[in-house]
Amino acid sequence: MIIEMRDICKSFSTNLVLKDVNFSLRGGEICALLGENGAGKSTLMNILGGVLPADSGEILLDGDPVVFETPAESLDAGIAFIHQELNLINDLAVYENMFIGRELKLKNGLLDAERMCQETRAVFERMGITMDPKTMVRDLDPSYKQIVEISRALMMNASIIIMDEPTSSLTGSEIERVFDMMRVLKDQGVGLVFISHKLKEVMQICDRYTILRDGSMVAEGLVSQVTTDDLARFMVGHKVRTTALQRARKTTHEVLRAENLTDRGSFRDVSFSVRAGEVLGITGLLGDGRSELFLSIFGAGSDYSGQIYFEEKPLKLHSPTQALNYCIGYLPRNRKENGIIKDMTILENGSIVTWPNLARFGFINFKFQNQQFDRQVGKLRIKMERKSDLITDLSGGNQQKVILAKWLSIQPKLLILDNPTQGVDVGAKEEIYDIILNLADEGVAVVVLFSEAHEVIRVCDRALVMYHGAIQGEVSGSSMTEHNIMRLATGAKLN
Length: 495
Description:
25% strand, alpha/beta, 2 domains, Rossmann fold, single chain, globular, six-stranded mixed sheet, 34% helix
């Protein structure tokens, strides 16, 4: 199958989102669709997937003009769209998710579970994977959930599969599992659109690239003929920094000290400290326990033994509300599930933690609320149309900045950031790095949980590497290299 999109234009009100964009894909290749948040990638693919109509332009399928008015029409033509937010139901088995909405039934009207399991196994065999169709989806790791989505697309005879940020929440080994599956599909003649902000992955898995910037197609070509620096420059329109960003600053008093923290299964015997004006990195691999550790410290995780000292005084938090009272902020790992409130506006999301301070006799002082948020908008350079818009109208990077604004409004003494650059584009990442460093310059103690070693090296003053719930070692200065971090993360010791 060959898909061609020619001169596609799309506007929302007065906002021109796509400007005469061309895009093509043929079976048996993997094409990266790249661009900053808001560049028009999702809009273009939503037009191909029948979610949105184009204002002008045409789509050709094997040379013949087609119009997709609904997602069902696009799917019937062999085009499947796997969204970043997976459409799986955790409380159903794998085979039930595979057939949801088109269940097979016996003559008596009951579900034909055995036949659905058989057909699910047949798809798995085609893809060379072993999975029990009766496994509950909630028991799968994220990579296998992605594979179930891919399998469901194949079961519906998809020849083109659009994958939107398929690796944004996966670990290294899980990403390789999904990549192996993509290579199998490529060899079978399936065409794949790979939407991602992870440029190293693009170099690893993709054949071609198409780059959008501000709604226009600005570059395309073979991945083998470019570098990650080239791709980043095409995306943002200028050269992107790749050097280490740490800068000399004076750290002062100890803000947080943890001694021998242990819970029932996620972390054990963890001791560390962080000072005002310091950026402390925490990293490791799948199952290292870092998120569980800091959720517990913040009062939102499991109970633990051991002792925490905050500004030299013993402290044990039992809720995020208590943490707020001590000026401790926490940006969670999963922005969509735990960071934003989808039905609230940008302003409400960016100020919600300060509502108790803004309220008098049960009513919020809207003047102060707006003034406070406006200061953060300027400081963080949040791009938006109106504060009254839903937060879901913003790009991923700007959503992340709104969550940061929420916690910065309390003037935190300690700020914990769990994978703050997950799912944001290369330009937004650089802005978030600057925000982290500026906070440290202002005397905030910043703890950053990073999954990528190169981010640790660029931003953090020193880093603790965890392995199976314990701190395996510390790196700083010349010892803070990807090699050393990986050695510690896999259980080795440094010489």
